[in-house]
Fold this sequence. Notes:
- The protein is mainly α.
- It has a single domain, classed as Orthogonal Bundle (Globin-like), CATH 1.10.490.
- The chain is 64% helix and 0% strand.
- The chain has helices at residues 3-8, 11-27, 41-55, 66-70, 77-93, 98-109, 112-115.
- Helix 2 (11-27) crosses helix 5 (77-93).
- The protein is globular, with a radius of gyration of 13 Å.
Amino acid sequence: MSESVYRQIGGKEAVKAVVDDFYERVLSDERLVGYFDGMDMQELRAHQVQFISSVAGGPVDYSADMYEAHAHLDITEADFDAVADHLERALRENGVGDDNVEAIMSEVAALKDPIVAD
């Protein structure tokens, strides 16, 4: 994915807006809110901005081990899908175009295996 996707969606400020919207949705979802108990939400938001910026081709290196970062959470496939749905809605409702949403969500989908508990 080229950096142009990052620029097309509005750069860092647009990504921050998407992340704020995303976490508002996730933390309002009773199926998901428990995953965030005791978490440093400011740190998680910063990681999410880096992650989305990276998968959108922005000027960010994001190299977290997704399995290691999520293994202790026992995330189900249904919950992964719910989080992905919230992200897709946040992208769309913050003006990200269809092609760019699809490009970002395909990167997210590729992470399902290392994130979902076996």
